[in-house]
Amino acid sequence: MIGVANYRLRYRPLRASVAISSAELGTFGTLGCLATSNGQDRWGITAGHVVTRTNARRMDMFQPDLRVVGALVSEPLTDMKVVAGLDVVAFRIARTIATTPAILELGAWQGVAEPVSGMVVMKSGFATGVTRARIGQVDADVFQVLPEAGMPPGYAAFAAGDSGAAWMSEDAMLVGIHVSQGQQGAAGRALRLKAALSRLGLRLVV
Prior knowledge:
Layout: E1 14-16, E2 19-22, E3 29-30, E4 33-36, E5 43-46, H1 48-51, E6 58-59, E7 61-62, E8 78-82, E9 89-92, E10 99-103, E11 107-108, E12 111-112, E13 120-125, E14 129-138, E15 142-147, E16 166-169, E17 173-180, E18 188-192, H2 193-200, E19 203-204
Parallel strand pairs: 1-10, 12-17
Antiparallel strand pairs: 2-3, 2-7, 4-5, 4-19, 5-9, 6-8, 8-9, 10-11, 13-14, 13-16, 14-15, 15-18, 16-17, 17-18
């Protein structure tokens, strides 16, 4: 596994799981996946709270942050897609930036699927890198993410900074976007990606 600091590098083509930040907040979250509205454009999907706390609808997004010259990764003052009541946002990636449908350290995804209780999943995120977990209770829009059984005390499957990361099944299907974490050893929470994409009016890039 690469060092977590390497998540702040500007990989080209752009891929998921790299660190991103917004002009409003300046703190790091994780780029979850890439989507499109028409097969030509590219949108970055992440947790809403990674981007804004004021429900702003236009925002500059950076990879990794605004202190780095040339780090703007979105279209300038990109119009963002949001879903009322869901902690998810899509921002339009600059047309000049090439992308690839893959997750840093995990490789290419094959598609999007529904989460199933008991399913083993993995993610690659800015804060804790590559980790494994299992899905707990699945509800209408969200599902629980539980540390995988048998891990030693202190194992962190997720932490602040992993928000926005995509959870992927063992057969490389994306099932959710990480949005929150409990105390050490407690359940985290993720959005059901398939439903979120549909409500954003986007589809996964494959």
